[in-house]
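A further point concerns the way the authors explain their paired sequence and structure data. An entry of this sort, consisting of the sequence and the corresponding backbone structure tokens, reads as follows:
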Amino acid sequence: MNLQTEQSGNTTIACPAGRLDSNNAKEFEANLLGLIADGEGNVLLDFSKLDYISSAGLRVVLMAAKRSKIAKRKLALCTLSDNITEVFTVSGFTKILDIHNNRETALAAF
């Protein structure tokens, strides 16, 4: 999995690519929690290039949401594929996370 980051105003956008599973969840967790701890403003996870997410990846997203709340930062997700949307729906994450169809609506919602 590759993680690209960029800045848009006061929002840090993290865009993981490939698979997010038990093989790379710890690395993703360290990178994402580092962004939350070290940065300022909002955090947007753009999943447009994410092909697969396992329960290990879901755990990292949930942990990031909790850490963002503690750090008084907003966290949102956008551009989930149909398969990843299904995983988030079945797990109940769509009810507790701020999820948007695309990057523009996510940035506007902050």
About this structure: The longest strand covers residues 11-20. The chain has a mean pLDDT of 95.
